[in-house]
Amino acid sequence: MRLKAFSKSLSFLLLLLSSQTAFSNKLAQAQTQVSPTTTTKLICPAQLGTSIDTVINRPIFSRVRWGILVQPLSSGQTLYAREAQKYFTPASNAKLLTTAAALQQLGANFRIRTSIYQDANGILRVVGRGDPSFNDTQLQALAKQLQQKGITQIKRLIADDSYIQGDIINPTWEWEDVQSDYGAPVNSFILNENVFSLKFVPQAVGKISQIMWDDGNEAQRWLTINQSITVAENQPSYINVTRDLTGRVLRIQGQVAANSQPYLVNLPVVDPSNYFLRRFRTALATEKISLGQTLVFTGGTNQQELAAVESPPLSELLMETNQNSNNLYAEALLRALAFQQPRVQNKSTVDIGLEALKASLTKLGVNSANYVLVDGSGLSRRDLVTPEAFVQTLRLMAKTPAASVYRASLPVAGKSGTLISRFRGTPAEGIVQAKTGTLTGVVSLSGYVNAPKYEPLVFSIIVNQSEQPASVIRQAMDEIVVFLAQLQRC
């Protein structure tokens, strides 16, 4: 999820090349507890429209564009609608469409396999297939399997990145996004979510903070200009990292409070395939396997499989995608949709995946005229979706055999994921499962409500063109959802 305002006090130099480097802080802000100013009085369906209008017609929202649709889960009957058939920028609500299509097409038990093959000349090939969950533990497992096969030396290792073709960064994403951990690149090789970490350790007040790298190999690849300083204990900590267009220079500004814990910053890698190879060399050395030449190459013949690891099942990948609004997972799943489709010359894996997504949702019954997607995560501002598309998808997915898996992937109000600190102490706590979304000027929330005095509901609420803080919009949305939780038959 992008551009969620930081929960810490941040002071940025907003230059063209600025990057937002503390995604964990953004997520915390997105989860800031909201206490809707509503009563626990039950509401009749005939009162719902007036109640919602009272919220969205407040003067502070006079320039805000609302899209809302509320329907019973069992039917297409409309309980409330406002511009429900108009296009909106959906932010991370787009993940609802990506994950629905992936579950329908690939199945809950689908896994992504990473393999190492040996050809007739003794050359080893590691084949990545875009597993977003692949990390150093799995990398070490591959090295261990090779050691158990009696391999002590690899003269040549090829990283085959042919599975995913096209740009590793969506060209419609904004520059600040691709500079940040939530906009990490996606290709055939994904390791540690394609980010590396820096820690800034405070020194004496007035002194430059110390940088600690989690990977010494990465430290050697960057020219670092560190202008961050240590300030008094009662001052806030913040770090701003800018990366130049060459991808070789890191300029660091900001401050770290004296005697505080090290300040963690995650940054996206520039070249995922070579990053994978550098980390693999280290893993192989741990197993006393020497590695000679490495090469990134597209295509070739895979013969004898020597080692392999698999991702968790798709049901678990969906949990990370929707519960934590993980952009990289959503983009990897979009590309996975292309695996079972015919390869088309000069067509990117993303484009093939988007076609497969559309075909899958059309088969489900979702009107394809109700959405236009250019990515799988909702990070692009060129994504356009109607509230009706989300309600259709949610309602139709609830009728499929995979309904429970899909629904379990969504955050629960006051309990989990990006809703863990919202709706606490309200009638909606624990009975709402919904996907959040935030961009600058955009807030969205779509999901299910198990109203105890009424039948289950599906809803989508999207706000665009807002100058209000996201927290103000979220509180208003939460008031509306609490109304839904208080519905009763009258």
Care to give the gist of this entry?
With about 500 residues, the chain is α+β, with helices and mostly antiparallel strands.
Secondary-structure topology with pairs:
Blueprint: H1 23-30, H2 45-56, E1 65-72, E2 80-82, H3 95-106, E3 113-118, E4 124-127, H4 136-148, E5 153-160, H5 175-178, E6 195-201, E7 210-213, H6 216-219, E8 223-226, E9 229-231, E10 238-243, E11 249-257, E12 263-268, H7 272-286, E13 290-297, E14 304-310, H8 314-323, H9 327-336, H10 349-364, E15 371-372, E16 384-385, H11 387-397, H12 403-408, E17 432-439, E18 442-449, E19 457-464, H13 470-485
Parallel strand pairs: 4-5, 5-13, 8-11, 9-11
Antiparallel strand pairs: 1-2, 1-19, 3-4, 3-14, 6-7, 6-12, 10-11, 15-16, 17-18, 18-19
Your description of this structure?
There is one protein chain. By secondary structure, this protein is an alpha+beta fold. It folds into two domains: 1-21 and 112-311, D-Ala-D-Ala carboxypeptidase C, peptidase S13 (D-tyrosyl-trna(Tyr) Deacylase, Chain: A, 3-Layer(bba) Sandwich), CATH 3.50.80.20; 31-108 and 315-485, DD-peptidase/beta-lactamase superfamily (Beta-lactamase), CATH 3.40.710.10. It is 28% helix and 23% strand. It has 13 helices and 19 strands. It has helices at 23-30, 45-56, 95-106, 136-148, 175-178, 216-219, 272-286, 314-323, 327-336, 349-364, 387-397, 403-408, 470-485, and strands spanning 65-72, 80-82, 113-118, 124-127, 153-160, 195-201, 210-213, 223-226, 229-231, 238-243, 249-257, 263-268, 290-297, 304-310, 371-372, 384-385, 432-439, 442-449, 457-464. The strands form five sheets. Strands 2-1-19-18-17 form a five-stranded antiparallel sheet, sandwiched between helices. A five-stranded mixed sheet has the order 13-5-4-3-14, covered by helices on one side. Strands 8, 9, 10 and 11 form a four-stranded mixed sheet that branches. β3 (113-118) and β4 (124-127) form a beta hairpin. α3 (95-106) packs parallel to α9 (327-336) and α4 crosses α7 (272-286). The protein is globular. The chain starts with 22 loop residues before the first helix and ends in a 5-residue tail after the last helix. Mean pLDDT is 90; it is low at 1-35. Residues 1-24 form the signal peptide. This is D-alanyl-D-alanine carboxypeptidase/D-alanyl-D-alanine-endopeptidase. InterPro entries: Beta-lactam/transpept-like (IPR012338), Peptidase_S13 (IPR000667). Pfam families: Peptidase_S13 (PF02113). Belongs to the peptidase S13 family.
